[in-house]
Every structure is written in C-alpha cells, then in structure tokens.
Amino acid sequence: MLAQLNEEQAQLVRTYIESLLRPRADATSNRWSFDFIEHFGEAKVSAQRDKNGMEVQVGEATCDQVTRPALWEHPPLTGAAIISYAVPIPPHLRALKLKFFIGIRDGSQLPNDRYVAFRVIVNGWKLWSAVKNSRGWDEYTVAMPELASDVARIEFQTDGLGDHRWNWAVWGEPKLISDF
What is the value of pTM for the model shown? Predict the structure, then answer.
C-alpha cells in the first residue's frame, strides 16, 4: 500500500509515524504511551453490518456518578460498532499493556437481563472481551502481544447482542503503556 503513495504522501506518512514514535512522557521517565482519545481523529469508525443506530464520539462520560474522558461507542441496530487505530509501536518496548475502563453511561435504562459486549481486537485476533450491564466503571489492564517495531491495528468494539437500545457503552481513558 505504501508503494502506491507519491513522494508528498509518503513524506506525510513518515512525519506522522515519527511523531507517534516520540515518547509521550517527561524527560525523567522511561515510559511510552499512546492515548486513544488524543488520537481519535486518526481512527477509522465503522460497523460490522450497518451503521444505523450507532453513535461514536469522544467526550466526558459519567458512569455511576464518576466522570472520565472516554470513547463513546453505542452499538448499531445489529452487529458491532468498531473504532480502529493503526498504532506505530516503537522498537525496544517491554511489557506493553492496554489500560482502560468500560462502562455504561448514567441515564441508560438497560434492563438487568440485557448486556453489552466489549471487545479488543489486535491485528485481527480477539485479545480481550467482556459483557456488562451495570452502570459503574470496570478497570482492566491487558497484556499485549509482542508488537515492538510493528504498526498494530487495534480495534475497540461494542455489540448490543441483538438489541442495541440503551447500550450507552463507553471506553474510559484507553491507553497503551510500556517501558523502554
């Protein structure tokens, strides 16, 4: 795909990747991070089937009266909502982890017998999944596969499991973190 770019487009890609490879930490830290909320403008938003009923955006989300910056990902009428990122992973990273919260926003009237599925897909493989129907935030830290020097395709998916009503799903503060 890169071979099809003209020189100007290739330079834009190089500049973008170089900016992402710079550590996002203070000078005394050996920690690298990638904030998915900060990079939302670079994400691809799609639906597994049809986008009808889907709502995807970045904003503050309140779950059980606790507010966090979040990816809002209300699933479509059928199938999953997908937020996909191409993340350049610097070389020499150790113990890469994905940290995030999942929640259902306050105000949702999701019945106790219905759930929302949350999934993390990395390079086409399901790395993590959970189902949820409570309003509070649940925190997760997921060990990532070896991805150093790769451009990882990371997807956040939500699915209403057949009924999307009141599935006000959110991903709180999603970040990749690692030490050099």
Answer: 0.83
Distance of CA 83 to the CA centre of its chain: 6
Number of separate domains in the chain: 1
**54: containing domain:** 2-179
pLDDT digits (tens, 9 = 90+) for 77-99: 899 999 999 999 998 888 999 99
Question: Of 170, 178, 83, 177, nearest to 121 (Cα)?
Answer: 83
The DSSP string of the chain is -GGGS-HHHHHHHHHHHHHHHS--S-TT--EEEEETTTTGGG-EEEESS--TT-EEEEEEEEETTEEEEEEEEE--SSSEEEEEEEEEPPTT-EEEEEEEEEEE-TT----TT--EEEEEEETTEEEEEEEE--SS-EEEEEEPP--TTSEEEEEEEEE-TT--TT--EEEEEEEEEEE-
CATH number, domain containing residue 46: 2.60.120.1060
